[in-house]
Amino acid sequence: MAGSTLGTIFKISTWGESHGKALGVVIDGCPAGLELSEADIQPYLNRRKPGQSAYTTPRKEADEIEILSGVFEGKTTGTPISMILYNKSQQSKDYSEIASYYRPGHADYTFDAKYGFRDYRGGGRSSGRETAARVAAGAVAVKILKSLGVDVTAYTRSIGDIQISDFVKKEIMNNMLYMPDREAAVKAGKLIEAVSKEHDSIGGSIECIINGVPAGIGEPVFDKLDANLAKALMSIGAVKGVEIGDGISVAKKRGSENNDFFCLDDNNNIAKCTNHSGGILGGISDGSDIIIRASFKATPSILKEQQTVNKNGEEINVSIKGRHDPVIIPRAVVVVEAMTAVTLLDLMLINMSSTMDNIKSFYN
Amino acid sequence: MAGSTLGTIFKISTWGESHGKALGVVIDGCPAGLELSEADIQPYLNRRKPGQSAYTTPRKEADEIEILSGVFEGKTTGTPISMILYNKSQQSKDYSEIASYYRPGHADYTFDAKYGFRDYRGGGRSSGRETAARVAAGAVAVKILKSLGVDVTAYTRSIGDIQISDFVKKEIMNNMLYMPDREAAVKAGKLIEAVSKEHDSIGGSIECIINGVPAGIGEPVFDKLDANLAKALMSIGAVKGVEIGDGISVAKKRGSENNDFFCLDDNNNIAKCTNHSGGILGGISDGSDIIIRASFKATPSILKEQQTVNKNGEEINVSIKGRHDPVIIPRAVVVVEAMTAVTLLDLMLINMSSTMDNIKSFYN
Amino acid sequence: MAGSTLGTIFKISTWGESHGKALGVVIDGCPAGLELSEADIQPYLNRRKPGQSAYTTPRKEADEIEILSGVFEGKTTGTPISMILYNKSQQSKDYSEIASYYRPGHADYTFDAKYGFRDYRGGGRSSGRETAARVAAGAVAVKILKSLGVDVTAYTRSIGDIQISDFVKKEIMNNMLYMPDREAAVKAGKLIEAVSKEHDSIGGSIECIINGVPAGIGEPVFDKLDANLAKALMSIGAVKGVEIGDGISVAKKRGSENNDFFCLDDNNNIAKCTNHSGGILGGISDGSDIIIRASFKATPSILKEQQTVNKNGEEINVSIKGRHDPVIIPRAVVVVEAMTAVTLLDLMLINMSSTMDNIKSFYN
Amino acid sequence: MAGSTLGTIFKISTWGESHGKALGVVIDGCPAGLELSEADIQPYLNRRKPGQSAYTTPRKEADEIEILSGVFEGKTTGTPISMILYNKSQQSKDYSEIASYYRPGHADYTFDAKYGFRDYRGGGRSSGRETAARVAAGAVAVKILKSLGVDVTAYTRSIGDIQISDFVKKEIMNNMLYMPDREAAVKAGKLIEAVSKEHDSIGGSIECIINGVPAGIGEPVFDKLDANLAKALMSIGAVKGVEIGDGISVAKKRGSENNDFFCLDDNNNIAKCTNHSGGILGGISDGSDIIIRASFKATPSILKEQQTVNKNGEEINVSIKGRHDPVIIPRAVVVVEAMTAVTLLDLMLINMSSTMDNIKSFYN
User: Fold this and answer.
1) Cβ-based neighbours of D339, under 8 Å, separated by 6 or more
2) Contact (CB, 8 A) for A206 and A243
3) Residues whose CB is less than 8 angstroms from the CB of residue B215 and which lie 6 or more positions away in sequence, other chains included
4) C-alpha dihedral, C352 to C358 to C362 to D2, nearest 10°
């Protein structure tokens, strides 16, 4: 089926395999009149690019985005924006070994089970490389949201058992791990080094804060803002848990602890005294910061020996060679930001026709 | 927008407010030839009904389901199945107080922000009562899944800090809290009593295990099985966290710990030695049990005094009267089961056209 | 699959069989704040109701619409509007004969082929009675459109070879055939009588003019306004042809005849000198009247003897008894109006987010 | 909004402007295991390419299709198939004149009205060139359908008032006008020459016959086979009328004339004695040939002088220069074939889960 398309009004379709000719995304439903060029998008892709730091794979991916349609004289035209990334240097490798067995923790087995065979080169469609296309779409969504006063900020919350204990926003872009806590970043860096030496990998978590969303975004009962965000984040390959606001810790709390009381702010407007809800009540934004968190498993490709089964039906031990990230988190931060942005923007566009007053003031 | 519709092939649309004339669901896309009557559905609704135990509200809701269409001579016809629950005894109450302020932890404020006003009677559309319609649809999905050898079992995993430490499946239906651990159920019962006496409420978590799903279900990259399940569960009002398999604990684990190695089972078929992945790899079922977990916040309606703001823009203290559940978990177990079933079934139907071989053997 | 749902923002799902307990429609995505009651909808259903004139079946259908949800204190709440029509007096009849063969021109055979069996009572889901649910949804759309200055007017253009040669709008509601030409109506009435006497039926065509649509409605390239209207009208059971503007006659015309030149109107605004295009250019409304036309086949149920095949695989001759309309046109006029209105409204709501300027002025 | 995406299971998204860098299509949901290469697709594009005959524009479009993803080792993988056509030689032209006024019969005005401005180079997104992407997707659908025994054949039925009076299938590919009647083709050729000399253009009609569709395809009540086909054809720029079977002529016929009686074929299987219905009853295929027809307006770009309005709000006379087709029909034949194929295939895939028997035999 059609599982590579997401969204209703701002609709994205990604395509492409890790080692095919190219990969890309089509945005169908981007509003007309947005100033847009490759320069708006490339910085986001650079954040996802490997080889940026000691903590990511030294693999080189050019990842130079090219806009093929939907932009004219520097502005979006309202028609589909097609963006492409060519896969330049990935032809020659020998994949015969990887084709002969199922890598633990990867989708090799399930793709075979579903489709009868698979593009085994670098994970094919199930490769994390597919998220580059999401990031390109996300960059467009982020730019639109900014013009509406909405800021989306993702950052690394934890790597292994090293968790941030401080939040200094400007620090996020100052360390290779995108942590808003310099001290935690140093510790996490050491942890990653230690894990790498043991030919292993490590998991982590990413948080995303969205500031400036007006109250009223989200469509009950199934297209709740948090429901759509949960889908968007869980659709990122390595994510195994998604939380809103206080997340799974609410399961242990009492109503009197967890409810956010309403109060008046300095301008006598209604506000919440706390934000346990993470900015969403009943699936609709409540005007507070939206807070969402995703937990990522460790990179499944490790040099450390693992057991699996090969094509001949034999149990074998394998060691996954190649330049793999010991931790996926730093490169995934911008992916979380992208998925959050496209999901939120879609619901903000949908919300425009929620009342007769809105429609009448638009058309009359 | 159209936020009350879920699914692609097996599509459900719920409608109705807590205190309106009725509520219901339309299932569009139920396959023809399923034996179906109200007797298949009512037991599921009874599990959600209030007043079943000391731990739930003594409020009475008749909740007698009626099938209005799509079934002929005892079998589904392939056309939409419309099911209705009349709201019988909820006319007379005085809602003027509740209409005058925003209840903390509820969607009163966000509905007003979005739509300009709200049906304030018992929470209107944002009431948990809406989930009765989901349960009716879920009962149909569960019945179809059973005929395909797929079993969906949800149960209470924790209430407050009381968590199950044993799993005895037949115990689930033997205690009012739907816990597969009798001892934990007794402890949890006492906790609920204590919380009730303090005019407070408590959260908890629900787990769902799906047995018998063949490998290959789920559509990369956005309609992954886990992504769609995450949306389905997060769309339940009180859910703030959703996890697959080892869930958020993967963030602290190494690749070598978290990867499930492949091995051969007794019939020399490929299998996973462990199931950290919760039965899903790359968004596609891997043939192991699917395990999904949702964390619920405590019932926001509590008798304990809370601060809020009223219509006149004044900060006031309120005490939410009425017969409210001190814990939402026991009644939500069947809702989790329902949402899991409709989501899985939809992806199983979608999967039928995934290969040319499938299509050719169907049509030739 | 899910074939009973139409629309993206203003989404309707109809359900119900001709002789089941009830039929109805759920509107998901109706904007909040519209004043709405059964009195807004009933007049539209009355226009579709049988027994209104000598030219329609004397069968009685109460068709009293009831709103079950989505309206509170006289206004729509933004949540799904569920509307129901109970099928009151259709239990007792004997359908054993009709169940035993396939009626020519009906969907009996194709439903069996698709679903394995069918609800044969009065045509089940394929009955024209299903369109009552569409009319109820259409009445809501028409009311919203009116508040935006958009008028939808359908009328009978021809019955058999009697075609209108005049257009007097107020005449439409003055004759039982909804023709804007009194003389043609008289002739058509006589034709219908003659056809009836021969135990036969007759086809016809319905035209719909939409006035007041601003330029800019419709989404290239597949959700063009005319493409979505064509689907909406062709989805009405008996329709076999759909035309926009000059319709199929354009096939014989030259570019210089068919192009509408642009000129300046009295206010020096750009306008079209003619309207061959029927108000749509490139799938987008051009500000002129939108003109759409549907051709209907004759009622397939006729008393006149026809050949068919029965359950035992024998060729037999049948005469379809019962109170059937000799012409479907008069009752279908309001159905065309309804389908046009729901389709146009959906695209008008979608259009609200077409430009950055629109979005910014909404959110900033 | 998202108007460039069509289909549910076999979903296509086209992108690109006439004179941008490239245009293309993403097919999301193509079943895995189909042998596919550019050689399967190029012949279809060649049929649409200009410069093929004296009757089409001598403009050169390379139109060499390239598959960028979704195919591995010669077979489709089940993941999105991205196909691209680069626009090679269209950079240098001066479009300042065309940008300064609205061409009659074109979408220049409506794009401006909707989006605030437009890509005026060669019609931008509204150019017929967009249909090349549809043709590429259609070629894939046609190949799948063939493997299921379904043949889709489109041909020119009329040009101006020259209509075919014979149907010799093999003749279709033997004349430049794709007419199944050699004599009519000769006459039509002369008509086109005459029209060209007068600096004018001419309309026509295209018919498509689909052979081999089993009974049972199509989803009542809105996703009827004929309803979806009507949308698909009406979404082609120049189409102003769509007909099924006897089409608009049914409006003048009696039930006894128009109903297809059922009879037994030579194998004693049920069949229709005639095919007025065009192979569809109640929106579901009935096993007979499906017959659908589209009426196209004349190419709006003509050298003959026309009146319009320019940017300065002045009425002016214009003569549209450039190499334009005097008739659009020959190049549109393959577009009709493509749109018919993608629409039918999508509904055939959807149909696979229509009964419990189908699902059980697939999964058990």
Assistant:
1) D134, D138, D232, D233, D235, D236
2) no
3) A109, A110, A113, A114, B284, B285, B286, B287
4) 40
CB B110 within 8 A of CB C78: no
**CA distances for C255 relative to C252, C279, D105, D300, D357, angstroms:** 10, 17, 8, 5, 54
Alpha helices (H) in C23-107, listed in sequence order: 38-48, 96-99
- Grouping H, G, I as helix, E, B as strand and the rest as coil, residue A140 is helix
Q: What is the ipTM of this complex?
A: 0.96
b/e B133-149 (16+ beta carbons within 10 angstroms → b): bbbbbbbbbbbbbeebe
Contact A203 B254 (CB under 8 A): yes
Q: What are phi and psi of A137, to 5 degrees?
A: -65, -40
DSSP state of A320: -
Strand partners, C290: C210
Distance from CA of A198 to the nearest CA of D (A): 35
Write the CA distances from A98 to A130, A245, A308, B292, integer angstroms.
19, 41, 12, 30
What number of other Cβ atoms are within 10 A of residue B301's Cβ?
24
Residue C351: which region, alpha, beta or left (left: phi > 0; alpha: psi -120 to 50)? alpha
The pLDDT mean for chain A works out to 94
pLDDT above 90 covers a percentage of chain D that reads 88
Lowest mean pLDDT segment, chosen from A170-184, B116-130, D238-252: B116-130
Backbone phi, psi, residue C233, to 5°:
-75, -40
Amino acid at B245: G
Residue contacts between A and B (CB atoms, under 8 Å): 399
pLDDT higher than 70, residue A355: yes
Separation in Å, CA D329 to CA C224, D131, D179: 20, 13, 10
Secondary structure E strands in A186-297: 204-211, 239-244, 262-264, 270-272, 280-281, 284-285, 290-296
The pLDDT assigned to C95 comes to 79
DSSP C130-182: GHHHHHHHHHHHHHHHHHTT-EEEEEEEEETTEE-----GGGGGGSTT--S-H
Phi-psi region of A153 (alpha: psi -120 to 50; beta: other; left: phi over 0): beta
In whole angstroms, give the CA distance from residue A251 to residue A246. 9
Confirm if C139 and D296 have CB atoms less than 8 A apart. Answer: no
Write the DSSP symbol of residue A3: -
C-alpha torsion C301→C305→C307→C312, nearest 10: 90
Q: Which helix (H) or strand (E) holds B244?
A: strand B239-244
> Hey, which residues 40-99 in chain D have their CB within 8 Å of chain A?
66, 68-70, 72-73, 75, 77-82, 84
pTM of the entire structure? 0.97
Are the beta carbons of D114 and C215 separated by less than 8 Å?
A: yes
Chain D residues with CB inside 8 Å of B355's CB? 31-33, 78
d(C-alpha C138, C-alpha C341), whole Å = 6
Q: Reduced to 3 states, what is the DSSP secondary structure of residue A158?
A: strand
Q: Which residues in chain B touch residue C3, judged by CB atoms under 8 angstroms apart?
A: 28-29
- In angstroms, the CA A142 to CA B124 distance is 34
Using CB atoms, which residue from A9, A352, A360 is nearest to C147? A360
10 Å CB burial of residue D317 (0-12, 13-18, 19+) is exposed
Check if the beta carbon of residue D282 is closer than 8 Å to that of residue D312: no
**The tokens 């989708």 sit on which residue?**
A107
Whether residue B159 contacts residue B177, with contact meaning beta carbons closer than 8 Å, is answered with: yes
Which of D29, D348, D353 has its CB closest to that of B349?
D353
Task: Give the lowest-confidence range in A290-299, A310-319, D34-43, D154-163.
Answer: A310-319
Between CA B265 and CA A91 the distance in angstroms is: 37
CA end-to-end span of chain A: 41
Q: Give yes or no for A353 touching C (CB within 8 A).
A: yes
